Each structure stands twice: as structure tokens, then as C-alpha cells.
Amino acid sequence: MTRFYTLINKINTWFWSRVVASSHSNIRSLNVFRIILGLFLLLFYSPNYGWIGKAPKVFFNPPLLSLGIFLDKFPSTTFFQILDILILLCTLFIITGIKAKISSLSYGILNIIGLTFQFSFGKIDHTIFIYVMLICLAFSGWGTELALVPDKKPNSEAPQKSFSLIAVLLCFAFFTAGFNKAFHWLNFDTSKNGTGFWLYQGWINLGREYLLVGFVKTLPFWLLKVLDFFAVIFELTPLFFLLYSRKAWHTWLLVAGVFHFTSLFILNITFLIHIIIYLAFFDFSIIYDQAKNIISKKGFQVAAFIFLAAVFLVRIYDVFNINLSSFLFLPDANILPNLVAAMIVWIFAIMLLFRNAFLTPPGQRFYK
Description:
Layout: H1 2-23, H2 27-43, H3 77-96, H4 100-118, H5 128-137, H6 158-185, H7 194-206, H8 213-216, H9 221-236, H10 238-244, H11 246-267, H12 272-279, H13 288-295, H14 298-320, H15 335-359, H16 362-365
Helix pairs in contact: 1-6, 2-3, 3-4, 3-14, 4-5, 5-6, 6-9, 10-11, 11-15, 12-15
């Protein structure tokens, strides 16, 4: 029995040491990323739950592990609007660094509360990962610098622990998605196709007919079957890259970015939330000094205050008008403008992922 426990301890030590070596970040990078993530949430991915309060009771079918099981119908619209406003306030606090630890935790928890009711419609969405990631980052020390009301400095292992957990959870999330697809997609029946299903369902039911959709519909159906195999293999393998080396992990992140960028063209799905998840592993410490210098300038502080206040008011307007808008000023119903905007953001993100995987000097990645 002692040998068994010794073996388990060795495997556990080896596993987490490999994960930390491949994924860890540093305090400087984290504090810059906190601002970038906050701006992303404010400008490109602002959740809105107010619409749930207007849903008929007949749609109320909460999953077992949710707050909905304690109710017999959806809460009022006012409840969800208050939830939306609190989420927006947390977003501002994350950006400006006002007790970022508490703000991040609150942001994640408030959104999970909203999602428990959103999941009552029968679909559990993958967007929950960003909120889990924020809860992990709350303990990373990312609110200790470049902050109006900084948090206390954590111990030196906090960033490593946070990012190793995020990396493993990300691998697990992809594995569960790929594992389910493997049972239905990995076969040689060209009359049944997962990629084709997404393509034609989006085209017929949701009006996704832009960019390369028309061209892809002319391709042989067996070629879409090849994409099925690639998608399953891609989703089942991230843990192997994570455990192999840091460069392998960042290469997989780059492939993931290209994969979702391609999906934008052939399926018209933006996968916006994945952008910021992948960029969490980019080394933003390279711009820390410049960011600190710019933020310290009075003129910038005034301009930033005006900008954030204006965007906040626009988002508040969205809350009370039940406007389901991800991109600021671009309603989600406007498919093509949203695709173009997402395309621009994805191109920038892929450039950063490429730099991190192949152009960043190894010593710089381990800067502490």
C-alpha cells in the first residue's frame, strides 16, 4: 500500500510540474491581462440576462444543479436587470483594479447565477468557462498592480496555481466536447456529417450564409467528413500538448485560434469568448512598462474615465431595453457586421498567439 501511495504521489508531482512548466504566467503579465480582459468583456462580450424575465413559465425547466430548482418560475425582469447592472459594475472594477480579487469572484458568481436560469431552457452553453476562469484568476494576484485599489500581494506560487488549474480545466472542457462527438462523428458514413449538420442548420435556421458558407456547400460531402475527424482529434488532444512542453502547448493554442477562425468563415460562428481564453496564456509582461507609464499620465486617466463612463451608460441602456448585444453598438441580429468585427479581433489574437508560440525568446516567457 505504501508503494502504491508513493507511486500516486510521484505521478501527481510529475503531472502538475509539467502543467506548471507549460502554462504558468507572471504578475506583470497578469495585471496587464486583467485590463485587457475587462475591456474585452465590456466592449465585445457583455452578458445580458434581462430577457429571461420575460420568458413564459412553460419554458422553465431548470437542471438539477441550479438555483432554479428552488423556484416554480423565472424571477422577474427587475431581478435580472439588477444582476446585469452588478455584472457591469464588476467589469469596471476589474478594468480599473478596484479590489480585483473580490470583483472577479463576484463577476464569475453573478454570471453563474444568471446562467443557472438561462440553462433552464434546456441548453448548457460553453460560455460558462470564462466565468470559471475569472474565479481562478481572482486568486492569481492580478489585482496587485496597475490598480486604483490594489489587492494584497499573494504568495509567489499563486499565478502558477491559477494558470495550471485553468489550463487543465480548458483541456477537460475540450475533451468532454470531443469525447461526445467521437461517438457520432468518427465513422465512414458520408451521409452523416457533424460539420455538415452545423453548416446547414446554421444556414437554414439562423441565416448564416456569409463569407465562405456558399463555397463550402459546393464541396464534396466526404471532405466535410474529414473536418469531422480533425475536429474530434483536435478536441481530444490538448492535454498531451500541455504535458509535453510549453512550446507544444502554445502551438496547440495557436492551432485552436486558427481552428475557430476557420469556423467563423465556414460556419459563421464567431467563438468570441475563446479569444480571451487563449490570450490568457500570452506573455503581456512585454508591454507592462509601457502600460504603467501611460496609465500614470493625468490626460490618459481623464480620457479613460470619460470613455469607460460613456460605454457603461450605453451598456446600462442595453440592460433596460433588453438589447442582446455582444459588440458595442452592433446588435447580435446584424450577422455580417458582427462577423467582420470578430474577424478583425481574431486576426489580432492569432498574431499574438503565433508570437508567443514561435517568436518570443524562451527566457522572456519565464520572466518573474
